Recover the amino acids of this structure.
């Protein structure tokens, strides 16, 4: 099962398929927001560079059903997160983030610790000898990393997002897997939950010692994300849903969210990391031919660390 369907399944179990409805939907220039009938709110990146934005009957039918989402069953709208249509995915992911906020309010963050105000980069404890691959140009992260780590590669569809002196760090999106495969720290934009490719990016990051999913879209119920290889979720916790709805409606970007939300990091607990490491080691040992000696079975155990 891919990550996003697993996320929805986990939420259905945590909330026992509770009969909630959609209270509000806003599709802004930069972000999309969805509010539950419980009042909980989630946001997601609004995809741009869309090829299906021509106003004709065919594209209108594929788009989110404007004017007909409020009052509908929340799980039906959440299922848009698996749609082939990017704008529907944005509404679906925002709804899943709203459901995640509800689940966290009731059950906490299983398998991880929530740290209000903690920056995801600080939580990662990046070291000077780390090789960092960043998918999505996180401008606030570039300055503290540039020149302070062994290498920094930035994968982004828009090289112009970088300053001229940073263009040498740019990597084409087609080279993302290669950059992540060489890295010890992976920083992936939460927008990949909307734009697609998150499963492939996490697979490519499997050799990293820390994998970070960051941005306002990266505000999910954490269990499935921890299972799929994410170590740190650097998202937001909404404090004033009505104000955040207004910010999104009026074209606000993530930089304006601090008026209505706080930055949080959810860090996978050390106990869970140790358990997963032991499980992977046991699986690796079990897959070795019976004739191999104990001394040779761990010959390459440190190659991807």
């Amino acid at each position: 099962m891919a990550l996003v369907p697993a996320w929805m399944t986990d939420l259905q179990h945590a909330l026992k398929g509770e009969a909630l409805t959609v209270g509000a939907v806003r599709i802004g220039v930069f972000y999309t927001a969805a509010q539950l009938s419980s009042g909980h709110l989630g946001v997601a990146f609004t995809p741009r560079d869309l090829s299906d934005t021509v106003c004709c009957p065919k594209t209108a039918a594929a788009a989110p059903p404007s004017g007909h989402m409020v009052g509908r069953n929340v799980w039906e709208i959440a299922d848009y997160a698996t749609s082939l249509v990017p704008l529907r995915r944005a509404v679906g992911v925002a709804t899943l983030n709203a459901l995640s906020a509800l689940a966290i309010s009731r059950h906490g963050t299983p398998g991880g610790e929530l740290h209000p105000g903690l920056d995801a980069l600080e939580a990662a404890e990046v070291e000077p000898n780390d090789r960092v691959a960043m998918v999505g140009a996180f401008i606030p992260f570039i300055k503290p990393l540039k020149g302070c780590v062994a290498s920094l590669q930035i994968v982004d569809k828009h090289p112009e997002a970088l300053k001229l002196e940073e263009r040498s760090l740019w990597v084409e999106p087609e080279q993302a897997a290669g950059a992540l495969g060489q890295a010890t720290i992976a920083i992936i934009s939460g927008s990949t939950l909307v734009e697609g490719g998150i499963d492939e990016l996490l697979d490519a990051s499997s050799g990293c010692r820390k994998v970070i999913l960051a941005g306002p879209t990266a505000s999910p119920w954490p269990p499935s994300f921890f299972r799929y290889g994410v170590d740190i979720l650097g998202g937001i916790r909404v404090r004033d849903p009505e104000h955040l709805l207004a910010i999104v409606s009026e074209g606000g970007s993530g930089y304006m969210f601090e008026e209505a939300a706080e930055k949080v990091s959810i860090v996978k607990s050390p106990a869970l990391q140790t358990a997963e490491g032991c499980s992977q080691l046991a699986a690796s040992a079990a897959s070795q031919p019976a004739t191999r000696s104990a001394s040779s079975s761990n010959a390459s155990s440190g190659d991807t660390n």
Q: What stands out?
A: Residues 3-107 form a domain with the Enolase-like; domain 1 fold (CATH 3.30.390.100). Residues 86-107 form the longest helix (22 residues).
